[in-house]
Design goal:
Blueprint: H1 11-24, H2 28-35, H3 39-57, H4 66-71, H5 75-81, H6 107-110
Helix pairs in contact: 1-3, 2-3
Amino acid sequence: MIDSEMSCLSKFQKYVLMLMRLRLDVEFTYLGLFFRVCRTTASRAFYEVLPIMNGRFECLIHWPSREKQYANMPLQFRESYSGRKIAVIVDCFEVAIWSAPQIPWLLPKSFPATSMATA
């Protein structure tokens, strides 16, 4: 990771930026505003740190074989998806919250246009 005097973000800031992007799905425009850099600098910092984090943490991620996934799949899924090559079934749901977040860039994430929840 480049951390020279010419870099406007420290190593720690780049790491936090990457975690915010991954965990909160914050756009690079907002990350740039948050860290007081331009959008492209935020994007470059993210893509600079991502391969480093991948190299450090790939040993912690275990992906089971298709056979193990199929064996542990609920019966209804096995019946619905038998014979198909499926690696992942993502189950998404919304949780109603009672108040809007105080941070402006989290508002669209908390109350998407398609959501039935109201602030």
